[in-house]
Inverse folding.
């Protein structure tokens, strides 16, 4: 939602495979070890891989622009299924700290979406009830968990449809 693959990105098997694995990470040390072993990478090559994964993405400008305005009225949060190893690079490439009050990482918390515990941990950190939240995701299973907890949801199937629903729900012109 916040990011999309660069239009000029040339698919790369190593980058794309590691990027896919990232979504299931709840332990950064184990993730790094497995990637290095499975792809026979040394530390420098692993760090380059992490950088290349981040660099395959660019911001989805319409959403970032809307969030920049909404941050004054709402607490904005990212719940991320992935390694925290990419976080410093994402923060360098995108204005995460300027817009989001909280970044919840599955690798840091040891749990991931769709486990309801990560949603409840996030709402607890914010001091709000799930019913007061709007949850957006591109994974239906994650959306279903949020709905069961009472959150309003937007299934971000694609950028155009997701953003249109987002604008409609928040009455953004």
């Amino acid at each position: 939602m916040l990011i999309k693959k660069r239009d000029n990105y040339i698919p790369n098997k190593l980058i794309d495979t590691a990027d896919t694995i990232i979504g299931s990470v709840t332990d950064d040390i184990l993730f790094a070890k497995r990637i290095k072993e499975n792809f026979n990478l040394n530390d420098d090559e692993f760090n380059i891989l992490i950088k290349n994964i981040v660099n395959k993405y660019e911001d989805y400008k319409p959403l970032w622009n809307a969030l920049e305005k909404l941050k004054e009225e709402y607490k904005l949060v990212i719940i991320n299924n992935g390694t925290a190893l990419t976080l410093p690079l994402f923060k360098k490439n995108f204005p995460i700290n300027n817009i989001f009050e909280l970044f919840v990482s599955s690798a840091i918390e040891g749990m991931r979406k769709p486990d309801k515990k990560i949603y409840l941990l996030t709402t607890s950190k914010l001091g709000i009830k799930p019913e007061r939240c709007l949850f957006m995701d591109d994974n239906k299973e994650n959306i279903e968990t949020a709905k069961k907890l009472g959150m309003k949801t937007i299934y971000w199937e694609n950028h155009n449809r997701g953003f249109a629903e987002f604008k409609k729900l928040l009455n953004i012109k």
Summary: The domain at 1-173 is CATH 3.40.50.1000 (Rossmann fold). The chain has a mean pLDDT of 96. The CA atoms of residues 26 and 111 lie 6 Å apart.
